Amino acid sequence: MNILFLHGLESKLSPAKRVILETYGIVIAPDLDYNSNPNTIQNLYDEFKSQEITVIIGSSMGGFAAYHLANSMGICALLYNPALPYRNNVVQNIPSDLPKKRSPLMRIVLGGQDDVIKAKDNLVFLSQNFSELKECTIQIINELAHQIPVPIFEKQAEYFFEELCY
């Protein structure tokens, strides 16, 4: 299994989280600069459309990109506090000509204490764009803030990969 991981704004995949994901497959985690590249989604699509990516995982700004890539490449996705409703003044273009294949399975983890990307704002966005989703699980963790602690990351990854294999 090939796992594409997209980190958040000014972030990276931590070694501990990489080890967790490597139990499920080969991890591809490109170094992204969302601030200087407004065409990140198009560039990622062009780079990975012909590769055998099985799942895409993204956090915050990476969750925003992963949402759009999963729905254009038709692959399963796990999103942690995705920046779907807003991106804090970081310009990211959503290409209008990407294919519309819809993700067959999407798990979205939202933090009830997230003060960067509010869970309720993500829920409003998702309700307004529900037709883009086939099967979607939304998990709200009341005590979770924006940063994803390793134990929560691990447990949610486990749930996601179990869903894939049911």
TrEMBL record:
Tell whether Zinc-finger is among the UniProt keywords: no
According to its UniProt entry, this protein's organism is Flavobacterium caseinilyticum
What's the protein here called?
Answer: Alpha/beta hydrolase
**Highest taxon in the source lineage:** Bacteria
Q: Does the keyword Magnesium apply?
A: no
An MF annotation (GO) of this entry: hydrolase activity
Q: Which keywords fit this entry according to its UniProt record?
A: Hydrolase
